[in-house]
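Good morning C.,

I know you're traveling, so I'll keep this short. The sequence:
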Amino acid sequence: PARPRRPSPSGTRSPTYNISVTAMTVEGKELAAEFAAVVDSGTSFTYLNDPAYTELATSFDSQVREKRANLSASIPFQYCYQLARGQTELFVPEVSLTTRGGAVFPVTRPFVLIAGETSDGQMVAVGYCLAVLQNDIAIDIIGQNFMTGLKVVFDRERSVLGWHQFDCYKDVETEAHGGSPGAAPGPSP
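The tokens, ready to paste straight into the viewer:
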């Protein structure tokens, strides 16, 4: 678990969940990093300032097997990669964050798939991007994409933010009156 921001001197608590990151790891290589980030499930993607953004992006880029490409002018991400026609497997470097307390925050979805239309009108994955944006304000934000596959819980009494791996489609408890969870959606391009 990570400790969110402490109460302010006036005694009021911050309305956000902040964690202190002391390191990032990309495919087993630890990167020096020290920053505080707001953990916000309402923000779709992760926003980091330099030097953390550049450290993470360049290390991720050095591990990727696909060719870097500009997939579309409308895509806000700087690090995007072209998939080969018919490619069905994807190696994405493993990413994690280490918090001040030593807990490891595993990032299971640091990327977003990019779809394109084939000549016969089918949508297929044509590439993917590191789904981290370089922030232009002084706040680092851990967005929803970094929380995918995790159950994140805040313990107000101890001011602790915790997480564990969780599949919300597989690990759903059904109600006794016959409800059943829907089928897990397939990966969307």
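Safe travels,
E.
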